[in-house]
Amino acid sequence: MTLDKINPTKTKSWKKLKSLKSTVDLKTLFKNDNDRLKKYSISIDELYVDYSKNLIDDEILNLLINLSKECKLRDAIDKQFTGEKINKTEDRAVLHTALRSFDKKSPFFEVFQKDRKKIKDFSDGIIDGTFSSSTGKKFTDIVNIGIGGSDLGPVMVVEALKYYKTDLNIHFVSNIDGDHVNEILKNLNPETTFFIIVSKTFTTQETITNALTIKEWLCEKLNEKAIKSHFAAVSTNLNAIKDFGINPKFVFPMYDFIGGRFSLWGTVGLSISLAIGYQNFEKLLKGANSMDLHFKNEPFEKNIPVILALISIWYNNFLDAESEAIIPYSEYLKYLPSYLQQAVMESNGKSVDRNGNFIKYQTGNIIWGGSGTNAQHAFFQLIHQGTKLIPCDFIGFKKSLYGNDDHHNKLLSNFIGQTEALLNGIGLDDVKTEMLKSQVSHEKMDMIAPFKVFDGNKPTTTILFNNLTPKSLGMLISMYEHKIYTQGIIWNIFSYDQWGVELGKKLAAKLLTEIQTGKIKKHDDSSTFLLKKTKITKN
Ligand code: F6P
């Protein structure tokens, strides 16, 4: 049993969508349809998603929903949840949803319950001091050593939930850049610092290099015996963990059926559990699980991840949008765009379909963004007045965590005001009328007015929660994960492999030898020159 291999461009719905001629004018649609907001919004639990400010109408949306049906999305969802090997090119199932399921019938339930208990016992033990350092001290700092999926999820969640923080300070070392690890180490006390090496393969150059540097540092500052009390490892590669000298008590398994970029929900989330305590970690999982159930069970017409995926396909494949901006109106979520860059772009940045053929239509979107309101003072100019179509997700919370109403009202007025401005814009006549009120000369007005025109009709989706809690964050991340899968299914690609990262890794390994030995082999002129130049700098 495998996923269907349907070329979306050959479906009836795709062809009809391609043939649609009229452009959607949001202002007119709102004016003519009092039910637009009701029809184009979905509430579940404490989440409210308003997609009414998107360039869609009933005809477009119905065709998009039909497209998902023609591409057998329902069947694909079922296959993922039941653990079929839908990651064909790696011959693996894809079970991150099972990591956050508390249903006894869910695949690997007992295995994951056991892991959760281990995560709990470990984080409780470090937080309350049961697991102490080699010199008998309570740990104060935790360093997560990992990269990509073994870093970005934990980094993002730990930052997002720092309001719920335990006494522990969590740090992350990811880059092979030696300055990164040294900047982290310079402020740490070896006697009170615990290190977690997270690597599914335990062969990733960055992670192993950083782990060895840190091991050396610890042995120098304390002694070799300290490794047993100061290191844990999370990996599928148990032999390599053993060789590193990790205490078997601090070894946490990973599984080949959990993709790195979808792995924060299990043992990879150890740093999250340490950062916010196990109870909160479990709330994060339960939030994600509630979105999983929504995705699995709701009809597509009222299914948040499906609707968001379809709207995004509309922009990507029919309106030629290349990117999507993620704008969380919460400083806590400042790492969400970079987390989603990996999740979306590593998953759906593919140009070969499930038949193994080159694709002639667009796939994965470019993801970027930044926190509002900072983003407004950085790149919003281009979104408002640039030439590119950039659909934006505005993510916000009704209440702030510290309850400062003055700040929060201002934040919310920007959050909503921006989507309104993007929708309505302002035409030349209105600009001129406004200018005249401020007693500008007619000559100046005629000169300046065109630059002050905003076309409007720029699409946004508003994603609103009551508060930023572990549960709401879990729902949010899970929502995006399912959006990714939905799009991958419709684009007829495999979302859960990542062959595109391999070639660069191999070349870097070859070049390393040339840089180390100084024996530069034949390359293109540019690379040869750069290698020689680096050599000169080194000497
Ligand atoms: O380079 C990409 C990647 O393979 C990601 O998919 C993965 O999350 C990351 O590297 C880290 O891999 P590992 O957990 O095996 O160290």
Name the descriptors.
23 helices, 6-stranded mixed sheet, globular, binds 6-O-phosphono-beta-D-fructofuranose, 539 residues, 4 domains, single chain, 5-stranded parallel sheet, 10% strand, Rossmann fold, alpha/beta
Note down, in words, how this protein is organized.
This protein is α/β, with parallel strands linked by helices and 539 residues long. It has four domains: 8-19 and 26-70 and 298-424 and 459-495, Glucose-6-phosphate isomerase like protein, domain 1 (Rossmann fold, 3-Layer(aba) Sandwich), CATH 3.40.50.10490; 96-282, Rossmann fold; 425-458, no CATH class; 502-534, no CATH class. Helix content is 48%, strand content 10%. The protein contains 23 helices and eleven strands. It has helices at residues 12-19, 26-32, 36-39, 58-70, 73-82, 96-99, 109-128, 152-160, 178-185, 205-221, 227-230, 238-244, 270-276, 278-297, 304-318, 336-348, 380-385, 405-424, 428-437, 442-448, 470-490, 502-517, 525-538, and strands at residues 41-44, 47-50, 141-145, 169-173, 193-198, 231-235, 251-253, 323-328, 366-369, 392-397, 460-465. It has a six-stranded mixed beta sheet, sandwiched between helices. Strands 4-3-5-6-7 form a five-stranded parallel beta sheet, with helices on both faces. Strand 8, helix 16 and strand 9 (366-369) form a beta-alpha-beta unit. It is globular and about 80 Å long. It binds 6-O-phosphono-beta-D-fructofuranose.
